[in-house]
Design a protein that fits this description.
Shape: elongated
Distance between the termini: 92 Å
Radius of gyration: 25 Å
Largest sheet: 7 strands, antiparallel
Strand order of the largest sheet: 1-2-3-4-5-6-7
Number of domains: 2
Helix content: 10-25%
Number of helices: 3
Structural class: alpha+beta
Number of strands: 11
Length: 196
Amino acid sequence: MKIIRLLSFLCFLCFLCETTHAQSLKDLFLKMPQEVCPVLSEYNRLEIVDNQKNDKTMQTRNLFRTFSEMKELTDDYAHLVISKNSEKEFKMLTKNDGTRIIMVISTVLCDGTPDSFVAFYSTDWKPLRTLDYYTLPPIDNFRKVTIDKATDQLTVTTTNAPLLLSNKDNNQPQKPYTLTNTFRWSTEESRFILND
């Protein structure tokens, strides 16, 4: 009987250690190094989490003296609007072997067009090699190059279609745009020159 009680107690301790070891994204957000989001100090991050606990708007005055706002903060997801032109999304992921990692998507708006960068971190915020977790689409999805040997013209067609997900205003896919440039070979300059 004592052995059963002892085993039950040990199982309970193991369970307790495991649950206290598992960190939520909120905890990791507070421990995040400033290099991951340079505009937010440790105080700013603490203020955001504190505001959530007190049912206030999760907003703080960042180091640029403008306001940053956390739109959503859960145990495994966070959406931070840093400024009107930049934001970060954090997502806790679990690998097949049970290891937890953090994916950070940093987005900047350039002339109204979003440009995003994806990074991965361990739960102690050590950078991980992105290509181990994310495969880039082939360059042929973005750019096609053709050469017409009869006219010595080079045509480059680029498209943004593989990168488009949705437009925040209406949640509809953005319209792809395609740009085609034709170049002619210049013997004098030994290079292709854009046709007028």
